[in-house]
Amino acid sequence: MRILLGVSGGVAAYKAVLLLRLLREQGHAVRVVPTESALRFVGAPTFEALSGEKVSTEVFDDVPQVAHVALGQGADLVIVAPATADLLARAAAGRADDLLTSTLLTVSCPVVMAPAMHTEMWQHAATVANVATLRSRGVHVIEPASGRLTGKDTGPGRLPEPEDIARVALEVAAGAASAEARDLAGLRVVVSAGGTREPIDPVRFIGNRSSGRQGIALARAAKDRGADVTLVAANVTEPLDGLPGVVRVGSTAELRDAVRAAAAAADVVVMTAAVADFRPASAPTSKIKKVPGQGPAPIELVENPDILAELARERLRPGQLVVGFAAETGDAAGDVLHHGRAKARRKGADLLVINPVGPGLGFGTDTNEVTIVDARGETVARAEGSKREVADAVWDAVLKASPGAEPTTD
Ligand code: C5P
After folding, report:
1. Which of 130, 208, 355, 368 is catalytic?
2. Phi/psi at 328 (5° precision)
């Protein structure tokens, strides 16, 4: 992707250097356009060395090239980090008083701004109004982080970490690209996300570490690509803004009811949720007490229904495509793929997305690495990258696998 990185003049400009390096490492071509004051914090040679491209701040620097138009037309994504109060004000007013603001007036690609400033400046009515104006025009303004600011101050206004800015910006770009495609238009899809909690008593539960991020990314990607989405979210704390059709659930029994209700009218069901295989046989309505001198009472477990296997067997709607996820670890009996392929054959889902899990892999991370297999365990696709990129790869595989997944007409 061709990324234009605008940098305005604040102490956080040093983080733009890290963001630049990160984006380059991910294989993107990055052209840095700093403001004059940004160069008082970080020198042009640093940006030029890391981007491999010339850095200029003024439209007069490269007149024959008409740089502001060429840069704007040539970019797939613009990130402004840090965006100072002054830069937000100039952009909101439509000023064209340097190369960065002039370029912002010529771009048609997604624009993401990551503001950084003191809390008082961020909360000032003028900045609030400028941010609202930019957002109303489609600019994605990231909320600043809270924490240590320059000097002794703390509060909202801190530039988010480069990894977070990169993730959000690339998600915004992917969202814009797939919104253009709209290749899932007319499809009704159900996605489950998160992890179930099986009550032990009114205050305790058996749960798991699933954050729900991969399922949410699937729901967002499907929505951007035009699908009608129901997201069944089990104990998800991640933001679900902009997603209509969210059903919140807690236990496996609740998840099963919600998924089956939505699946009755769905073309595709994707079971991303980490569902507990077992639940306590009974959950008393009052809290289990610790009795001094007595050891812990054993918890008897019973097996939960396998919702995915049921859906694959019953096909609640004719022609419905059923997709499962398998978070796997290798062991003495075989590697991740070996276990995943066996699971695909056992469960009978049309597609199974196999991902290795473990420390730093899969659960709660921003990236994922998957192999998608069919019901016979044959590999149909591999994908690696942000959870959004993996989500798009899953929907691509769904489209390829499903002559039956034609848009619903009833
Ligand atoms: O067997 P395992 O739990 O690894 O299978 C994972 C897949 O099966 C996921 O798609 C998950 O949502 C689904 N599953 C289910 N019901 C269960 C257990 C898992 O639908 N009781």
Report:
1. 208
2. -125, 155
Distance, CA of 391 to CA of 216 (rounded, Å): 9
| Cα–Cα nearest to 159, from 57, 7, 30 | 7
Find the 323 Cα to ligand 1 centroid distance in Å.
10
* Mean pLDDT for the chain overall: 92
Closest of 23, 115, 99 to residue 66, by C-alpha: 99
Give residue 195 CA to ligand 1 midpoint distance, Å: 10
User: Ligand 1: distance of its center to the CA of 309 in Å?
Assistant: 8
Beta strands in 284-364 (DSSP E): 301-303, 321-328, 351-356
- What does the pLDDT look like over 115-156, one tens digit per residue? 999 999 999 999 999 999 999 999 999 999 998 777 777 889
Ligand 1 atom, smallest distance to 310 CA: 20
Q: Tell me the pLDDT tens digit for each residue of 276-321.
A: 999 999 999 999 999 999 988 899 999 999 999 999 999 999 999 9
Exposure of 60 in the CB half-sphere (CA atoms within 13 A): 2
Q: For a substitution probing ligand 1, which of 306, 347, 394 has the most ligand atoms within 8 Å of its CB? A: 306
Pocket-forming residues, ligand 1, beta carbon under 6 Å: 271, 273, 275, 277, 304, 306-308, 324-326, 343
The residues, ordered by sequence, that sit 6+ positions from 61 with a Cβ below 8 Å of its Cβ are 67, 99
Q: How confident is the model at residue 409 (pLDDT cuts 50, 70, 90)?
A: very low
Biggest CA pair distance of the chain: 86
Does residue 130 carry a catalytic annotation? no
29-72 pLDDT per residue, tens: 999 999 999 999 999 999 999 999 999 998 777 766 767 788 88
Tell me how far the alpha carbon of residue 284 is from its chain's centroid.
38
pLDDT tens-digit profile of 197-252?
999 999 999 999 899 999 999 999 999 999 999 999 999 999 898 898 999 999 99
Ligand 1 centroid vs 326 CA: distance in angstroms?
A: 7
Instruction: Locate the ligand 1 atom nearest the alpha carbon of residue 309 and give its number.
Output: 20
Atom nearest to 273 CA in ligand 1: 12
Nearest CA to ligand 1 atom 4: 326
| CA 395–ligand 1 middle distance (angstroms) | 19
DSSP code string of 217-249:
HHHHHHHHTT-EEEEEEES--S--TT--SEEEE
